[in-house]
Every structure is written in structure tokens, then in C-alpha cells.
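Allow me, if you will, to draw on your knowledge of protein folds for a short while. I have a record of one protein: its chain in single-letter code and its fold written as C-alpha cells. Kindly check, if you would, that the fold set down in the C-alpha cells agrees with what the sequence suggests. Thank you for your consideration; the sequence and its C-alpha cells are set out here:
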Amino acid sequence: MIETPAVRTGIHAWLGWILLVVFETASQVFLKAGSDHLQGVGGIGRWLVAAVSSPPVVLGFLCYFLSFLAWMTLLRDSDVSRAFPLTAVAYVTVLAASAVWLGETVGLIRCLGVAVIGAGVVLLASEGAGREHGT
């Protein structure tokens, strides 16, 4: 069996994680903005044409593809069981971006839920760091 590190470390890993979260967040914001413009478009054919000709939808797909590339690069050197939970950071960034750029109302319960997710990410990341350093 091939041995891989629990989670890749170093500047390239940080860059990969940052790019993954930025592109994932951007894809969700762009796709939501694009979907708002597709309301009321009838028929699957017209809807598809409207979707592929919508700049926000196209940008959303592009960002989604770029997040896929970043993810595949990260998986190359990481255990998926440890890396995948860390992708939950995107819950925090999507929540913030939806409030800032889409004007969505974010209530206390939603913020608390995302804070719990963020705490889980910190716990998972610290567990991996402790194991790598022999603690």
C-alpha cells in the first residue's frame, strides 16, 4: 500500500487550500447569482441556452472546475479521510460571501452552526498536526 502523509504541509499546501476555498466560494456565489437570472425561463432548451450564455453561470462553472483542480492536487499528497473534512472551511467563507456579495440575511443560528463547523475543522487540523509531531 502506498504511504501518504495525513495532510500535505508547506507553502504549496497552504496555497492549494487557499485556492480550493477561494474557488469553491466563488463558484457558489456566481452560480447563485446566475440562478437568480434564470428564474422564469421556461423549457429546458431555453433554460440551457440562458444558463450557458449567462456570465455568472459560466464564471461559476469555471471556478468550480478550478476548485476541482486544486482539490485533485491536494488529494495527490493527502489522506482523503483527513483532507475532506477540512473542506468544510468553505461553509464559513460561503456564508460570509453570501452576506457580503449577495445581500443574504445571516441569522444567529446559522452563524452558530457555521462556528461549530469551524471548530470541528480546527479540531481535525490540530489532530493531524499533533500526530505528525508525535504528540
About this structure: The mean pLDDT is 86.
